[in-house]
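Table 4 source record.
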Amino acid sequence: MYRNRDGVSEVIDSYFAQVSDVLKKLPLDELEQVIYRIEEARWKQQVVFTCGNGGSATTAIHFASDLAKGALAPHKPPIKARSLCENISLLTAWGNDVAYDEIFSAQVGPWLRAGDVLIAISGSGNSENVLNAVATARAAGATTIGFAGFEGGKLKGMVDICITVPTSSMEQIEDVHLLLCHLITTCLKKIAPQDLAARVVSPQRYVFAEEFSGG
């Protein structure tokens, strides 16, 4: 196998090794909570919103698409999912006419209802517009989920459930966030309705009801 003599192969090996190490440190309990909370939203016909900036914006759009189509499964209702990053004209109108910090909270405010879900994606965990969307969602009685990096930033302390990717490499944080989206979607395709019974996803708020147990 050809190995580049200028050090490229070493960078490749190191990068893959670092990502592998990060994956081993992910909070699996929180990951399961996110999966079951979204599955609950499917059966209760609650809406799942996503948001993020830059690379996280593309992940937010991708995730909403996967939830709406990729998570389709026989004998299950579809998941109602939409990204707050999709409408460029609306994003720029809010950013230009009001403030960039309000581009997500202004969008989600009229639509979000108690029981809905907001998935906020921020590598730093400190993006002001993402935090404002979380605050709006919490005030409406929605479940808030965070995908963060580093040590979670402010986002970690604001959301009901947070998956923090423990690295300072923004590239690797975004890699793992997208991997998580695909993993969650795969689980949502395979989870059996009866597995919902008596599952607690957010102890402060939600307990799965027997009506979804299939019995």
